[in-house]
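Reproducibility note. Readers wishing to regenerate the assembly model reported in the main text can use the exact inputs given here. Chain order matters: entities are listed in the order in which they were concatenated for prediction.
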Amino acid sequence: MGNKLLLDQGSGGLASHRLVNEVFFRHLGNPILGRMDDAALLPRPKGPLAVSTDSFTVDPIFFPGGDIGSLAVHGTVNDVAMLGAKPLYLTCGFILEEGFDLDDLDRIVASMGQAARKARVKVVAGDTKVVPRGAADKIFINTTGIGEVVASPSPSGHRARPGDVVIISGSMGDHGLTVLSCRQGLAFEAPVQSDCASLNHLILKLVTGLPAVHVLRDPTRGGLATSVNEIAQQSGVGVTLEEDAIPVKPVVRAGCDILGLDPLYLANEGKIICILPEKHAAKALTIMRRDPLGRDACIIGRVGAENPGKVVMRTGLGGRRLLGMLEGEQLPRIC
Amino acid sequence: MNSFEALRDPERCKAVLAQIEEAMQGQTLRFMEVCGTHTVALFRSGVHSLLPSSVVHLTGPGCPVCVTHESEVAAYMELAARPDVIIATFGDLMRVPGPGGSTLKKAQAEGARVEVVYSPFDALAVAANNPGDKVVFLGIGFETTAPTVAATVRLAKQQGLANFFVMPFHKLVPPALDALLSDPAMAIEGFMLPGHVSAMIGLKPYAPLAEKYGIPAVVAGFEPLDLLQAILLMAEMKRQGKPRVINNYKRVVSDEGNPKALSILYEVYKPGDALWRGIGTIPGSGLVMSDAYKAFDAFEALGVTLKESKPLPGCRCGEVLKGIMPPNQCPLFAKACTPASPVGPCMVSTEGSCAAYYKYQLDLSPA
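Running the prediction on these inputs yields the following structure tokens for the assembly.
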């Protein structure tokens, strides 16, 4: 294997085959993928299918707590799982820049393989394109996930109802601040680390133990604030969040204070918002807290009928203010 | 409880709120906070929603992005269009619309070279890494940030960097307060003075507020208890008819300010007139390069001038910045002017009063 990726390795010829065998099959191989047909032949599951697709273009491609490869698995696995589904299969498409470091590619695909095995999903189809230097930024990955819906009815952003509580599985903003601080070369007193993880096992326990889950959502880009606003609008309800109840790690809060950012608008890659009737909250918290990924789960707010489509924050002092959606990207302030 | 937690402690805050209610018996207090960070802190913490209606809050001209004049935006947009220029800026300016509606963000999408930096020193690195280009740092900000920019210019001179320039758009707070109070339309009865600016300039420049205009003023920090204590002190001084300037942010601000930072500031810059958006020229309220550092002045070195630029039609930034009109009474507010499609910088900046009103306040149903 050479050190840098060549255009030849995306040509579809022998060089491509060697790359596919030496990198992709080595880390992602399984009997379905190994058939090498034009499409994957999949057994029909019993329940309805949940399908989701996402493209990953993170910069930097390696960051504390993960990399673009594991992120591409976790992100799509989580999106499928949020419908109360058991993710089964992934497809992945790679757009690679000519000259990309082959050792880095190997590290990324190995990380994908590891994440897929941990999530117990199979990569069943894939594609690789190599584009001329400058036509892409190092590596872009698209993943599509297919899962079998086990919850009935399936959780949905349209199903939040007055009387429900809002639960979050852990601290907010870890991934967003980690990536931003790496990108800007900022170091904080304590290290920050992405929360990047597949949540499907935790979600399966939740939806099989509690058929009453109304909404599941992973607060990725736009953060908690934007996700809860989306749900309030989809369901036509008002949501009141308690500022003091929302977990944010001290190092993340301090980093955000320095940069003028709000942790509630920063991306998370290993957290769930769960909305369900209040009478089931204690059981949901017990299930979540038994799982390492939900250890810090807590109730952060309530769904009501007032202020439909809006999210109101009750501050630590008992004051109230609007918590709106993120407008554009967050930019560091001047002073 | 550490001292930081104590400043956010709901019980202590409630006690001060009760004291404010008591101090307000039979009087009103129209107070203005000068600093944009205070504006945001008042809304974000919920303090604004808890104040009695007798305490009237006015937002002031203390957001550095908001007071950047249209013609200043036009000048840097002109530079951004040059192929051999890299604009280095804090993120706040990226979405500020210029007279033609263009922004640095749009210019960047069209090919302009713009680097968002976190410190002016980062702009020096951009200059060092691009020796064939001219790197122009947009020097906006009040006394808080101007000394750091001055230190950067001084370092550029020491390093012999010939391709680093600054557009000196800095503005000074005390002359602006004087200009506001000279306006007969104003009815300010108290000033919450900016914590960060005061850390640099100390208390002395504010003396005329109490002596000349008879207005109580309090230097405040940014935690809920800081904000409430400042309001209480203003209310008490007003009731007693004994206006003073009080430093209630002693953990950060010394009465003398920061002489070292000021000495660097006035080595590189000297006071000059400045254009304020919506207000116009305020004598002695800006900074221009001193003779020894003229080579780093983007205006001089790159042949740019401020050209007369008409304010955007319908935009009432001036009245908002002077506290005459609350942002949500501007006819464009939340209609033609939103954070997604801002008409003026007050709706863009994270510290802008219009953005704060839009972001944090709504006609909430009763709890």
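We highlight two features of this model. The longest strand of chain B covers residues 280-289. Chain B touches chain A through 42 residues (CB under 8 Å).
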